[in-house]
Structure formats: structure tokens, C-alpha cells
Amino acid sequence: MVAGCLLAVLVGAARADTYKWTDDKGVTHYTDKMPAEQVNKASTVLDKQARPIKQIEPPPTPAQRAAKEAEAKRLEALTKSREEADRHDRALMQSFTSVEEIELSKARAVGTLDSQLQSSHAYITQLESRRADVVAKKASYGQKPAPETLDREVASIDVEVQRQKELIEARQQEKLQTVARYETFTTRWRELKAEADAKAVGGASAPGTSTATVTHAK
């Protein structure tokens, strides 16, 4: 029993670590246990030969924690952005097999917008013609008071003409954006196609090289 207790004490002593730490005055200390006031500060654990075996870092400051959280959020946003870009790339390559297909799709989209613009311009011409007729009819009354319905119709026509002009402006902007978007599609499609072709060439060259080596060995 006594021998067992003595063995436990000796083993515990053999495993005892030494802590190296620096106090607030810059003085370095070596102790077998950390003072309570130093527990949450930086220190180094040494083995029996005074070699460092473990570095104990102090807990992060609020500013350090905030910086770490901000960096984690930045990396998360970057990962999501890359994943979204990858999805767009896959969709682009699945949607079009050539630049010609992209150009055809662009022509259709732009053509639809051009048709809408032409319709709006034609409608404005009709409205302005109708407005001229109403104004002429109103003038035909001379000194007599014209019906209020004519004034209301002119006001209604003016509102619709303004609405059509705003619609035309919006569609013109949409047309510019559509053209720019398809130009981006074309540029990115060519980049992805070049990457795919390069990988295909690299993958095809490996078997050829291997075959040549085997033939030479024979």
C-alpha cells in the first residue's frame, strides 16, 4: 500500500510541467503551476529539459473577436459568391452550345424590345393625332363654351402620351442592358469553352503519352 502511494507520487512528480510566463513588469518566471492572476494570460509549458511543448495563448480581446467574426462573414460571403458564379457558368454552358446561339438569342430579345418600342411610338402618333382633332373640335365652338368632355379628353391623352414616353425610355434602357448582358454571356462563354478545350486536350494527351512509352518498351 505504501509502495503504491510512493509510486503514484513519483509518477506525478515525473509528469509535472513547468510554466514559463511573464508578469506585468516584464519579468519572466518559471513555476510548476500558474498563479491565478496569470491563468488567462500567455504562457509556455516546458518539459523537464526546459523545451517548450505547449503554447497557451491568452483569450482574444473583444476587438480580436470582432475582427475574427468579420473575417468569417467575409469568407462566407466570398464562398457564396463563388458558388453563385459557378451556378451561372454551368447554366450558361448548358443553355448555349456556341456563340452563334448566344447571338441568335440576343437578336430575339432585342427584336422583342424593338417591336415594343415601335408599338409605343405608333401609339403616341395616334394619340397626338386624336389630340389635334379634339383641340380643333374645341376651337370650332368659337366664342361659345366647349363641352368639358373635350378638356377631359385632352388631359387624358396628355397623361397617356407621357406614360408611353416613360415606357419608351424604360425599354430603351432595358435594350441597352440586354445587349450588355449578352455581350457578357459571349465573353464568359468563350472563356469557359477555352478552359474546357484545354482540359480536354490535356486529358487526351496523357493516354497517348502512356501508349508511346509502352510501345517503346516493347
Quick recap of the structure?
By secondary structure, the chain is an alpha+beta fold. The chain has helices at residues 2-15, 62-95, 99-139, 148-217, and strands at residues 18-22, 28-31, 43-46, 52-56.
Provide key terms for this protein.
disordered N terminus; single chain; four-stranded antiparallel sheet; 4 helices; alpha+beta; 8% strand; 218 residues
Strand adjacency order, main sheet:
2-1-3-4
Multimerization status: single chain
Q: What profile does the largest beta sheet have?
A: 4 strands, antiparallel
- Structural class from helices and strands? alpha+beta
How many domains would you count in the coordinates?
3
Strand composition percent: 5-15%
The succession of helices and strands, N to C, reads HEEEEHHH
Measured on Cα atoms, how large is the radius of gyration?
A: 41 Å
Give the mean pLDDT. 83
Number of helices: 4
Number of strands: 4
Global shape: elongated
Describe the structure.
The chain is of the alpha+beta class. The chain folds into three domains: 17-59, no CATH class; 60-95; 97-198. It is 73% helix and 8% strand. The chain is built from four helices and four strands, in the order H-E-E-E-E-H-H-H. Strands 2-1-3-4 form a four-stranded antiparallel sheet, with no helix packed on it. A hairpin with a 5-residue loop joins strand 1 and strand 2. Helix 3 (99-139) packs antiparallel against helix 4. The longest helix is centred in the C-terminal third of the chain and has 70 residues, at 148-217. Mean pLDDT is 83; it is low at 1-15 and 210-218.
